[in-house]
Each structure stands twice: as C-alpha cells, then as structure tokens.
Amino acid sequence: MGLLPTVESWEAEVEEFRRTVVACAALHRRKDDEGLPKSALPLEADGGDEGTMVCVTSGVSYLGMALANQLLLQGYSVRITVHNSDDMEKLREMERTRGDNLQVVMANLTDVQSLRTAFDGCRGVFHTSAFTDPAGLSGYTKSMAEIEVRATQNVMEACATTPSVKKCVFTSSLSACLWQDNARPDVPSVINHASWSSESLCIDSKLWYALGKTRAEKRAWKIAAEQGLQLATICPALITGPEFCRRNPTATIAYLKGAQEMYSHGLLATVDVVKVAEAHVCVYKAMDGTASGRYVCFDRVIDSPREAEKLAKQTGMPVDKICGNQTPAHPYRIALSNQKLCRLMSRPLTCYSQY
What we know:
The chain has 355 residues and is an alpha/beta fold. 46% of the residues lie in helices and 14% in strands. α6 (142-161) runs parallel beside α9 (208-227).
C-alpha cells in the first residue's frame, strides 16, 4: 500500500523538529539577554514544572516528535529516548544545537534499568507507546500486543522507582475503549473515558492493536496503583496530520482493522497529531490540580461517504475497506464523547454526546 516511510518524509520531519529546537533556543537566548522568564508560554501552577526536564519515550515517532515540539514550545526541557543508534545519529545535530533544552538518549524498553537511567532527573515521563512492525507491512500482530504490554510494565516500573519522576502520562488509544460486545444487554450507549474494550471480543475478532492497547493500559493502571505513581492516560482516535500514513504506518493500518464496523456505529474517529500533543501537555500540567484518570481524544467523526473516501485516499486503502457499501446506522448509533477532555482544555475539541 506504499505506507513505508520514505527518506524524504523522514528528513522533512527531522528538519521540522530541528527548526523548532533552533527557534526555542533563539527564544531562550533572547529572554536570557533581556532578563525575561524562560518559558515560551505561561504555564499553569503545577508544583514548579516551569523549565524542568521531562522525558518522551519513542521520541522520534510521529506522535513523539509532535509532543517533543509542543513541550519545547511550552518552555520545558525535553529528553527523548530512541531505540537504535541510527535514530540517535540523525538527532545528534539537534542535540548539539540546544543541548540544555533537548537531550537524546538510548533506552531499551525491555530493560528497566536502561529506562531508569533515561528517566533520572526528569520530573515527568510521557510514554507514547510507539511500536513499529518489524516486517514492515503486516500491521500490528498478536506478538506485538504482548511486547507492548511488557514494555509498558517496564516503563511504569522504571517511573515508579526513579526518585525524580513524580507523574506519568501514558498514550493509550480510543481502540481500548470502543470495542464492546453488542450482544450483551448492558452495552453502554455512550463510549467515553469510563469505557473499556472487551478483551474476549478483541481476541475473537483478531483485533490485536485494540487488545494490546487495552491490556497495556490496564497494566499501567495496576502498577500505578500498587506503586503510588501519579498517572493519567490519553486515548486518541486515529492520529492524522501531514503524511500521517507514511510516518505512522503500523498504527494506522492496525487502528483501521474493523473500520467498517466502527463506521457503521459512528465510532470511526480521527484526531490531528498536534491536538493530541496539546492534550498530553494540558493533562500533564493539570495533574497536580484536577486532572486524573483517562481522557478520550478526537476531533472528527467519519460519518459520511465523502469523509470515508477522503480517509481512504489518505491511507491508500480501498474505500470499501473503510465504509463498505453502507452509511452509518444513525438510529442505532453509539455516542462517542470526549467531554472530559474538552472541559479540561476549556475549548471545543468536537464533543459528541448525542444519540
């Protein structure tokens, strides 16, 4: 389907990240010279986070880079983890450009001690939970779901046992909320932050991405409760944005498995990558106040053949794989709500609570 990242798209993404780092460096230098506060934007009172170091796992992923950009613009110092030496070398120039605001480190998600070393000195951790398909084309497999759960356990244990880390924001997925067993009489009419996907349904339908996200998030909550770690989770819909399918192929393909069923129930939603990054930072900043628990994040529901066709073109998928030959069954439609996040961010993210 032509979804593998090209050299050009990777270089463009790194160049965009580099420009942000350089711009932030110039802004900080100007503020230092003028005796002004270093923060690019005013931060809410949250226990003195201004200028502190935070860590973004999988920092060269599609979401990871957007999140690192947003954190830099908000005045944070950012440490990003990479999985291999190739990614490390590609980001060395940016690290040298503004080493005190951006650090790039190697961290192995299978090694708790490696993660502790990466997190040491950071007040918060953003685990973006980004994985790629080793085969390149097959999508998200059952074994990858198991790997994701183990990696999440390692990250959470490292957070809980690193003295400097006070809070963690974990990137889950809307797919961890919306796969309900419609045959049961107690199926909710609204999918929101309190909803969990049925693990048995995910297994029976081979929805490995949804299964992996569901189990990984549950494991994160279990460890946080046992270890006393402050945790919040973001459950984004299909993450879109410039060249999203090229830059984020595994998650895109995996999320859209079962797209026809999501579309028919009015549950096929998307969200721009920048808005997901903004939501992460907003939740993190508010965690010392009222923010807690899970947050559903989306800004558009694909509910017409025209929108389904547009998404199909963006992903390179046949339109019938997304919507089939049907339109959403509105009389039986399940509501999708992100009102909890809307209230926290104090601005509309397209809240759905009807039907």
